[in-house]
Amino acid sequence: MKITLAVLIVVGTLSRADAAPVAPCTDHTKCPAGSFTPKGLAVKLPLFRSYSPEDARKQVTRVIVVIHGDSRAAGSYFDTVAQAVANAKDTSTLVLAPHFLAISVTHKPCEGDDDAPDLIEKDDVNLFWNCNSWKGGETAMNAITTTSFDVIDQLIEHQRATLPKLSEVVIAGHSAGGQFVNRYAAATRLKKTTVKLRFVIANPSSYLYFDQHRPTAACGNNTGSCAKTEDFPIDAVALLAGCANFNEWKYGLEKRVGAAASFSREALLKAYLKRDIIYLLGTEDTVSDTDPDAGKNDLDTSCRAHAQGTSRLFRGRAYAAYLKVIHGAHPVVHEVPGCRHSAHCMFSSPEGVNALLH
Fold first, then answer.
1. 32-357: CATH number
2. What does residue 307 show for φ and ψ, rounded to 5 degrees?
3. What pLDDT does residue 291 have?
């Protein structure tokens, strides 16, 4: 009887200590619906999550917050990243994919989007923005004191407070989501803690410049040098093109709005240069802003974006060179072979998985 009791005690102890980790959910249509309610608000941010809060508390050491693109297909982005994590046999990473609902300022659907404006406006449950404001950290249309950056700040703070094993948070975005992450890295209000922060910026249409320097035409279209100070003159391409607003937010720091408005220019630059940031560029994401079909590729063809280069790949290369030449930074850039403008291709690639999980 004593032997039997001892065996039962040992077996019971092992079953609790060595219980197999729960497998993550990787299909947003089958995952439990999730949301996050910011402090002081009655409306919430809908999101997809790969673990329930209970399972996350037991086993999660890393959180990936993935920001969707212009179409705001949060479910598709969630599936891509959650599956990439699962394929890496990682059971300690929680994937969160927030959904920024949006309508146009004329109360019509955003281009390429099926969200119904009348349903969104009558919705007293979820936060919503206009088609572009969410990307630059501006306030929600139904919560005028809360920006999209504030919401992500609070979402991350909540993970820090509720996940006892958490050691790292990764904020990743592709396309418009990459634009979001680029600006967010400069204007987040998150305080430094022992939980590491990493930002992964993939194939955005434009970047935040911290002064009036822009690449020359040769640098911006990949036909000339990007290695010297003179390759980044002040205003050159923009002024020649008659683009007077080339340096306004979210392309530059003039006329800042939303979350960025509360920071000085110096503070935004200083914060950005301190961040752990990885840039991912698809080697085939080369549709030019002069291409008649550029709009179908969701490429920003404005003069403000054109002042940064002619395609996403060339704009990314020029931006990395700008940070190095003008600001003495050492940006980490990985070009992903064979990838066009595809979040799935980028985040499922070895370079993408390494950026998310390294």
1. 3.40.50.1820
2. -65, -15
3. 92
Per-residue pLDDT of 256-276, as tens digits, reads 999 999 999 999 999 999 999
Cβ contact 255:319 at 8 Å: no
Q: What is the mean pLDDT of the chain?
A: 91
User: What pLDDT, on the 0 to 100 scale, is given for residue 13?
Assistant: 46
3-state secondary structure the chain: CHHHHHHHHHHHHHHHHCCCCCCCCCCCCCCCCEEECCCCCCCEEEEEECCCHHHHHHHCCEEEEEECCCCCCHHHHHHHHHHHHHHCCCCCEEEEEECCEEECCCCCCCCCCCCCHHHHHHCCCECEEECCHHHHCCEECCEEEEEHHHHHHHHHHHHHHHCCCCCEEEEEEECHHHHHHHHHHHHCCCCCCCCEEEEEEECCCCCCCCCCECCCHHHHCCCCCCCCHHHCCECHHHHHCCCCCCCECCCCCECCCHHHHHCCHHHHHHHHHHCCEEEEEECCCCCCCCCCCHHHHCCCCCHHHHCCCCCHHHHHHHHHHHHHHHHCCCCEEEEECCCCCCHHHHHHCHHHHHHHHC
Domain segments of the chain as ranges: 32-357
Q: What pLDDT, on a 0 to 100 scale, did the predictor assign at position 141?
A: 92
| Of the candidates 163, 169, 164, 165, the residue with the CA atom closest to the CA atom of residue 198 | 169
